[in-house]
Amino acid sequence: MASSSSPQVSKDRQFIAVIGDEDTVTGLLLAGIGHVTAPPNVTKNFLVVDTKIETDKIEKAFDEFVNRKDIGILLINQHIAEKIRYRVDTYTAAFPAVLEIPSKDHPYDPEKDSVLRRVRRLFGE
């Protein structure tokens, strides 16, 4: 049986955030995950990454999403996670869960996935 405090930790985490390429973000927005707060402090739960975006902007978005109390899951394209791999690998909190996903042009490589590597270490592989 789960402890009575565990539902409290995830109670307000009602959104999925995404950092991805245009096709991935568009598909997820069409699926209904998009959320934008009202002005004056507009915040979004997604970031579209293209070839012109700088790595520090990706890092900033990652940090903002993992520190928000309303995000339960952060989806990030694996090829984008590679750009900030040290940041993704050092993130160990349970919430939000950070999941690496494939994109249309970049297939999923389980050897690069930080969560899968951690699981393999736990099982002694």
Order of helices and strands: HEHEHEHHEH
Tell me the name of the CATH class.
Alpha Beta
In whole angstroms, the N-to-C terminal distance is 29 Å
The Rg value, from CA coordinates, equals 15 Å
Total count of domains? 1
Mean pLDDT: 87
Number of helices: 6
Fraction in beta strands? 15-25%
In the predicted model, the low-confidence regions spanning at least 5 consecutive residues are 1-5
Looking at CATH, the homologous superfamily is ATPase, V1 complex, subunit F
CATH architecture grouping:
3-Layer(aba) Sandwich
GO molecular function, one term: proton-transporting ATPase activity, rotational mechanism
Protein name: V-type proton ATPase subunit F
Membrane topology: Peripheral membrane protein
Pfam families: ATP-synt_F (PF01990)
In short:
By secondary structure, this protein is an alpha/beta fold. The protein is 37% helix and 17% strand.
Explain what the structure shows.
It is globular, with a radius of gyration of 15 Å. It has 125 residues and is of the alpha/beta class. Strand 1, helix 2 and strand 2 form a beta-alpha-beta unit. The chain starts with 5 loop residues before the first helix and ends with a helix. The N terminus is likely disordered. The chain contains six helices and four strands, in the order αβαβαβααβα. The protein has a single domain, classed as ATPase, V1 complex, subunit F (Rossmann fold, 3-Layer(aba) Sandwich), CATH 3.40.50.10580.
